[in-house]
Amino acid sequence: MSAPNAGDRTLGKGDLLRWSMRLAAKQPATLGAVLLATLLVVAVELIKPWPLKVLVDNGISGKPLSGAAGRIVEALPGTGSQDGLIAWCAAATVVVFVLGWAATTVAAVSAVALSQRMTYALAGELYDHLQQMSPTERGRRRTGDLLRRVVGDTGSLATIVVAALIPALTAVLSLGATLLIMWRLNLPLTLLTLAVVPLLGLTIWVFAERMERTGHRVGAAYGDLYTTVEERLSTVPAIQAFAREPEADLAVWHAGESTLAATLSATRAQVDFKIVVGTAAAIGTAGVLLVGGWQAMSGSVSVGTLLVFISYVAALYAPLAALTYSSAAVLQATAGAQRVHELLSQRPSIVDAPNAWPMPPIRGDVAFRGVTAGYEAGVPVLQDLDLTIDAGELVTLVGPSGIGKSTLVSLIPRFLDPWKGSVRIDDIDLREVTIASLRGQIGIVPQDTALLPVSIAENIAFGEPGASDGAIRAAARLAQADGFIEELHDGYRTVVGERGATLSGGQRQRIAIARALLLDPPILILDEPASALDPETEGRLLAALKQSRMGKTTILISHRPQSGEFSGRSITLG
Amino acid sequence: MSVAADDQKTVGAPLTHGLATQKPFSSWSVFCDTAFQQPRAWARVAGLSIVSAGLALLSPWPVKLIVDNVIGDKPLGERSQNLVDALPFSGDHALLVFLALASVLLVFGHAVIDASLTMRSVRLSQGMVFELGSRLFAQLQRRSLTVHARTPVGDSVSRITGDTWAVDQLANRALIGPFQTLLIVVGAAWALKGLDPQLTLAVLLIAPIAVAASLTLGGSVRRTATDKRVTQATLQSHVQQMLSAAPIIQGFAQERRFSARFRAIANESVRIERRGVVLSGLNELASGFASACGLALVLWLAAGKTASGAMTVGSLLVFIAYMQIIQTQLKSFAGVFGAVQTARAGLDRVTDVLNEAPEIADIPGAPDIDPKGGAVHLDRVSVGYERNTPVLHEVSLALDPGEIVAVIGPSGAGKTTLASLLPRFLDPYAGVVRLGGTDVRQASLRSVRRAVAVVPQDPVLMPVSIAENIAYGKPDATRDAIAEAARLAAADGFIDQLPEGYETIVGERGATLSGGQRQRIAIARALLTDAPVLVFDEPTSALDSGTERALVEALDAMRGQRTMLIIAHRMTTAAVADRVVVLRDGRIAGEGPPERMLASARMIGDADWVESATP
Q: Which residues of A touch B458 (CB under 8 A)?
């Protein structure tokens, strides 16, 4: 997980198993409960046929009890009489049944708990990881795709443990125990049963490959379906504007069809496997019936023992089949696990240095020294840039689109690190201090003003959740937002829609400005704060800013040269 | 199944269905509609279930005959004896071989029938899921943009890819499963009554007791199912919120607050999930315990009878085997009520969407529009987003074919709303929007939108190459035409500088491109279409003055060829227009040639407009 370029590498089956086991081991109590309950389930399964054997051999035919088990039964009161023994056997059936059911329930509950805990622990890790990624890194991916990795794909690792590893462990345990007991009961019959095993092994080997392949195809098909739906829904405005809905319908339909086809081919593999294994098991059972029946006719084996054998033979094949299914389950979970892994192994490029210290209170000197920076390797946006902004200065950055104005300011809160050179505040290289302490002192109004679907007041108080109503209103007034907010039905309590969809572009911009002004930060960055405002409102806003930001560093990006006139200095890039 | 023509037909069918129906669906009718489109498939599943139940009930008989008639010395029944006499061999050993072979054949036959049953029911029920999913997607992507903007994409995706599985659940758990249980119970009763009528009655009593026991906890299971859906939805929308607000969260250093919230929701989710499993475990235990007691009772009675010789050991084994078969069936039956409730919750979320009366849809049989060179008329149009809060009040505006009209005015005046009327993203509350003289509501939506190309304020780009993005409205455009459109939109310069040029794949919402670059691609995309009407919503808001000038010159050169409506707040952009319209508070406050409007702007002392309009 920690190798920087591990994301390029496809995860092998072994990597997946190790990773899922590591995650499971982080939940020791729950894992312990699952394993204990599993052991209990196996034990109960082994006991299950015995009450019937005692009933048939001793209860009905009246033969005396024998063996170690017989002595235990004899010690119980009332087993001396035939009626008493029958009643005990009936009661034992209920007890075994209830025990089995209880063990199964405990196993199911703890397995769900384990899988949920594992999933959410991993989802939490991924969530934090995403929060650490720089806007550039996140910007390369679609929101819907990331969402799915956090809330959907993180379950794959738990699936491997709960649907593959634990059933496989159960299978191995019950296989071993069953064979051991069979061996003790009747050697010839056991050898007869085992004769089928190589044949079965061959079948499993042949089918495992086919089931893995189809399982993987199912996982990939669901991934495609999800991506198709998500991509199309994310771009609905463009689809509608150019009337391309029929193509989108068709794409989703095809993705559904191929998912169904993949599912059917996986189901086909499973049912074919079931036919072959079921028939092999039936041949084994028939062999036991044939030889056992022969022995029973000559009296060398009791009918009860024969019954125990038949039920054990049936129980022998189930675990073998489970082993095959679990390898398919691993492969089906691969696609999801791979997506989680790919994201987790992309290490955030901007992190705290190991010895980072908290940024002291900022005075406001900003200096760029020989900075070269960009987003794509080999395509620098800024080259050898030198620029100094003094504490308390009000500057406007102007220049043609695409020249790097936004890039320049995103270096200040370290949304981006320079490739060469350094960015310094109060003569401290930003890479030496902790990110949280730095960003806590910088206010930003980004070009794309994301609002949260909460009330306007909460949106303005985003950076300082405890802010008073008075402070919120004052910030809104400065941002020229109080006028339209007061006119809304619920004023400051109005809940804005998803991404602020219920407000106009200019209204969203002003709330974002109020949000930054509320903090009264020592450095304030405004990236085209007025692009959606009419000139009149823009003028009032700039005047208010000029007054309230007196003596504090403020950087304004504008592509309109005239905005520069409000500031002390206008810097032209390009 | 994958012939293109077939697909087209099947895709089309649910659409007209979804759009034309006025009466609201209930969740059950949505299920029935989806389910019973294939009566034959259902009949096959039912038929195979009957054969499968028959074979399952036959399977214990070889062992019974071996125990009673081969190992034991009971004579065979008259009918069985006749059958055995017909065999070409005789004697106990031969019978043993025959029965062993028969048991293998029974298992093999059962496995083959079951395989076919599984394939058919998977095809049927999952086919229903994808069918419903396609129908839902068709409806969701045609939602009005206003509704679309308010709904998180993740929510819509989970309805299509998650909630539609409700029909699979219902088909398997509520229909196919109980039908098979019924078959087994009835078949077992019929087969057992010959062995011992009294015991058969005892066996049959178990079924209602077990079902009743599982009902007692049904209510809590139902509540938990609902809680589960709610927390899942909460978690999903929280993550979505975090992802879309991530730049702000980082900018304001609020990561810890968000992480803590995520973990709180996740813990709640674990708690509810666990409660759900405990409850359904108890539920199963209740019905399981009831049937275990029944089993013990039957065992005790039967063993007594066997000991006294009133019944054979083999018959006892058949009774036990049948009890186990019935028990397995009842076990799957135990979760039915919970499953139906869970499925109901999902189906409701699907039905909610299907029931939405589409705000903007074709009237049945709507003809394609003839834009007649691109004449646009807005006739006393009032429109808005919330009931009783119109944004535009009785606005009338006419654009002659080939005319360029600029709309200016303060933020919030309704400029974007006005622009949304032309491609019919919105329908007016009152008044009419006409294109080429035809009310756009009377024509097919597709033809209207093909006739009006839009450059929105916040352009959405597709996650495909830049060339494909530019050709989005005209997929068959040649490479030369694409490059020419890019040149007109002043986008060719930066595209050529990208390492992969026109083949560069665009990131989410065009995030690897700057705002101005995105805008220029959207402009090229609109220019490349054949649409006679172009609508630009602040096409130059993210452009510097040099790029703006180049673009305005390009629009100027196209004068007379297409009708253009340009929303602008810069006079330099508005100056290209033949006519400038001023919008204030949702009403037209004045209109005239750009020079006059410029003069009036000077008159009211709006310095910014004056300066930006001065060359």
A: 505
Interface membership of B419 toward A (CB under 8 Å) = no
List b or e across A441-464, with b for residues whose CB sees 16 or more CB atoms inside 10 angstroms.
Answer: bbbbbbbbbbbbbebbbbbbbbbb
User: Which residue stretches of B25-91 are H helix?
Assistant: 27-35, 39-58, 61-65, 78-85
Chain A neighbors of B116, CB-CB under 8 A: 271
d(CA B581, CA B171): 60
Do β-strands A394-398 and A523-527 pair in parallel, antiparallel, or remain unpaired?
A: unpaired
H/E segment holding residue A386:
strand A379-389
Q: Which of A58, A401, A517, A526 to mutate to test the interface with B (most CBs of B within 10 A)?
A: A401
Each residue's pLDDT tens digit, A33-90? 999 999 999 999 888 888 878 887 877 777 777 766 677 777 777 777 777 888 888 8
Closest Cβ opposite residue A249 in set B11, B123, B385 = B11
Q: Which of A241, A310, A452 sits opposite B423 (nearest CB)?
A: A241
Contact B149 A256 (CB under 8 A): no
CA dihedral A187, A189, A191, A192 (to 10 degrees): 170
User: Nearest by CB to A401, which of B126, B461, B543?
Assistant: B543
Is B536 within 8 Å of chain A by CB?
A: no
Percent of chain B residues topping a pLDDT of 90:
20
**Per-residue pLDDT, B418:** 92
pLDDT digits (tens, 9 = 90+) for B469-514: 999 888 899 999 999 999 999 899 888 888 788 888 886 544 567 7
Q: Which residues contact A565 (CB under 8 A, 6 or more apart)?
A: none
Region B303-323: mean pLDDT is 82
Q: Which of residues 62-81 of B touch A (CB under 8 A)?
A: 62-63, 66-67, 70-71
- Least CB–CB distance from A453: residue in B241, B385, B547: B241
Q: Contact A499/B103, CB-based, under 8 Å?
A: no
B357 touches chain A (CB under 8 A): no
| Residue A476 token pair | 């809104």
Q: What is the arrangement of strands in the sheet containing B430-435, beginning at the earlier edge strand?
A: B389-399, B376-386, B430-435, B438-439
> What's the whole-model pTM score?
0.78
Quote the crossing angle between the two packed helices B177-193 and B313-334, to the nearest 10°.
160
Task: Give the separation between CA A28 and CA A123, rounded to whole angstroms.
Answer: 18
CB pairs under 8 A between A and B: 460
Q: Count Cα atoms within 13 angstroms, Cβ side, for A508.
A: 21
> What is the spatial distance between Cα B433 and Cα B422, in angstroms, rounded to a whole number?
7
B198 near A CB under 8 A: no
Q: Helix, strand, coil: what percent of chain A each, to 5?
A: 65, 10, 25
Phi, psi (deg, nearest 5) at residue B169: -55, -50
The residue count for chain A: 574
Secondary structure of B554-608 as H, E, C letters: HHHHCCCCCEEEEECCCHHHHCCCCEEEEEECCEEEEEECHHHHHHHHHHCCCHH
Secondary structure of B313-377 in the HEC alphabet? HHHHHHHHHHHHHHHHHHHHHHCHHHHHHHHHHHHHHHHHHHHCCCCCCCCCCCCCCCCCCCCEE
Print burial letters for B453-473: b (CB count within 10 Å at least 16), e (below 16): bbbbbbbbbbbebbbbbbbbb
**Rounded to an integer, what distance in angstroms lies between the CA atom of residue B406 and that of residue B581?**
6
Closest CA relative to residue B106, chosen from B72, B63, B66, B75: B63
CA-based nearest residue to B536, from B453, B445, B472: B453
To the nearest 10°, report the CA torsion of A270, A272, A273, A279.
140
pLDDT of residue A501: 63
pLDDT digits (tens, 9 = 90+) for B318-366: 888 888 788 777 776 666 777 787 788 888 888 888 888 777 888 888 8
